[in-house]
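As a warm-up, study this chain.
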Amino acid sequence: MRVRDAYGTAIHEASHAVIARRLHLRVDHVTLTPPKGYAGLCSVVVSNLAARRRPVLLLTLAGPWAEGRHLHLPGGVLPEGSDSDWNAAVTLARALAGAEWKLALSTGFKAVAQLLGEPEVQAKVKAVAMELLDRRVLTGAEVDEVYRGAHFR
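Now compare it with the structure written out below.
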C-alpha cells in the first residue's frame, strides 16, 4: 500500500470509528490488516440493528465521505461502487426509507458532512488515524482512549 493510500484508508476507518463513538455505538476493533479483499476494516457492535439503522447508516457513510475529502475527489466522496460501504449504505437506506432511499442517502451524507466538519471531530479522526497507522490494529478500548484524548506515544 502506498503511503497516501495507507493514510487515506486510516482516515476512512478512523471516521467510521469516531462517528460510531459519537453516536454511542461500541467499536470492537479497527484494522489496516483486514480479511482479503478489504483495505481496512472497522468492526462495530450493534445489538439491535432495526432500532439503530440511522446511526449505522451515518457511520457507514462516514468512511467514503472522509476518504473522498482527503483525496480531493470531485464531489468529495468515494465514487459509488468503489467501496463495500456503498452496498451496506444502500441496503440500510432502503430499510429506513423504502422508495425514498436516495433521499435517505442524501440526508445521511449531509448529516455526516456536518458531523465530520466539526473541528473536534476532525481532530479525533486524525488522532485515531495516526494511531492506527502506527499500530495497524486498535481495539475498541484503544479507540475509546484516543477518542477521549489519551495518547499511546
